[in-house]
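Researcher: I'd like a structural prediction for the single chain below. Treat it as a standalone chain; there are no partners to consider.
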Amino acid sequence: MTADDDLLDRLERQLGWLLVTGVTASASCLSAGLVLLFLAPGSRWSDRLLQAGLVILMGTPMLRVIVSFVEYVRIREWFFVCTTLVVFAELAAGVLYAWHR
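Model: Treating it as a single chain, here is the predicted structure.
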């Protein structure tokens, strides 16, 4: 196994941890929000938890792209740096478009 393989394995572990953490946090917020929605309809906390769960779920892929970009710069994989920047620009454009709509 070469040094590059070790760096890529580390990146894969980081991204796996990030995705598991994001999905778990999102599911926890959504579950708690649903429970509160059924126990206390109209509660502001249920709405906030549900919104937080959705924001975390949607933000997890964007955070994954940011972590990938940082790691690719660190290991000097310039092709992947450029590719990741293109993906980030597309995600950011989608978010901005949805935000202003």
